[in-house]
């Protein structure tokens, strides 16, 4: 991992399209501003990982388990 | 065109039916071309089938059919990426997950489909909803109606 120290209002460039700026530092919380084209999704890491896990789990769902979603026969 | 599916063998689909996900799904960014296949036994659900990875298919439902008052709030970035100003006119789908006897919907990362342009995106729902919205009560209500 590349580790850089930045102060408030300083930035980092990632590639030629992404700029990360330290907007505010308060205690142990950092506010980051991200400038990136909308085609590049930006997510909190843990949120992305959780959804990635859910997507993979859902992809392994057996079609038979979806039986409760089908109308009951009369 | 002929496609191989995860659960339905080989199928013939129209190229007009292809839905493009320019960012794929989270964790599946390379899978950008999908089709929505009806479930043979239920009009309440469908299968989002990947064309790029034939073994990949996800059960999806319209969340409002199962969850009364389902709230979806999408950030500007997600809407811009879709080329939409708002969710008006978009179709909303949620992915079905489950384990054992349990079924749930991913309410936190629904899929927004611009049905006219055949473009879609998995977005983050900013409303206060869980990642797994249990379907138990919704399903028993559905079964009694049917």
- Structural class computed from helices and strand pairing of chain A: alpha+beta
The largest β sheet of chain B comes out as: 9 strands, antiparallel
Please provide the count of β strands of chain A. Answer: 3
Report strand % of chain A. 25-35%
Strand order of the largest sheet of chain A: 1-2-3
Shape of chain A: elongated
The first-level CATH class of chain B is given as Mainly Beta
Q: Rg of chain A from C-alpha positions? A: 21 Å
Could you name the ranges of chain B where pLDDT drops below 50 across 5 or more consecutive residues? none
Number of domains of chain B: 1
Secondary-structure element order of chain A, N to C: EEEH
**Terminal CA distance of chain A:** 60 Å
Can you describe what's shown?
The complex is a heterodimer of chains A (74) and B (146). Chain A contains one helix and three strands. Chain A is α+β, with helices and mostly antiparallel strands and 74 residues long. In chain A, strands 1-2-3 form a three-stranded antiparallel β-sheet, with no helix packed on it. The mean pLDDT of chain A is 93. Chain B has 146 residues and is α+β, with helices and mostly antiparallel strands. Chain B has one domain: BH3618-like. In chain B, the strands form two sheets. In chain B, strands 3, 4, 5, 6, 7, 8, 9, 10 and 11 form a nine-stranded antiparallel β-sheet that branches. A two-stranded antiparallel ribbon of chain B has the order 1-2. In chain B, a hairpin with a 4-residue loop joins strand 9 and strand 10. In chain B, 36% of the residues are buried. The chains are: A alpha+beta (74), B alpha+beta (146). At the A-B interface, helix 1 of A face strand 6, helix 2, strand 7 and helix 3 of B.
């Amino acid at each position: 991992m590349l580790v850089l120290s930045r102060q408030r209002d300083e930035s980092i460039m990632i590639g030629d399209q992404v700029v990360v700026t330290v907007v505010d530092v308060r205690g142990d919380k950092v506010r980051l501003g991200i400038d990136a084209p909308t085609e590049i999704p930006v997510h909190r890491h843990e949120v992305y990982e959780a959804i990635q896990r859910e997507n993979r789990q859902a992809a392994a769902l057996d079609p038979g388990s979806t039986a409760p979603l089908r109308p009951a026969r009369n | 065109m002929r496609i191989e599916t995860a659960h339905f063998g080989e199928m013939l689909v129209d190229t007009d039916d292809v839905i493009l996900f320019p960012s794929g799904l989270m964790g599946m960014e390379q899978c950008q071309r999908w089709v929505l296949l009806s479930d043979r036994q239920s009009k309440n659900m469908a299968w989002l089938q990947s064309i790029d990875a034939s073994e990949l298919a996800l059960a999806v439902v319209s969340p409002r059919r199962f969850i009364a008052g389902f709230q979806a709030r999408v950030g500007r970035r997600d809407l811009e990426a879709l080329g939409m100003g708002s969710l008006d006119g978009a179709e909303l789908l949620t992915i079905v997950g489950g384990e054992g006897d349990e079924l749930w919907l991913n309410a936190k990362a629904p899929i927004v489909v611009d049905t006219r342009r055949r473009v879609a995106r998995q977005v983050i729902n900013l409303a206060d909803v869980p990642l797994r919205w249990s379907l138990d009560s919704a399903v028993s209500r559905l079964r009694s109606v049917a």
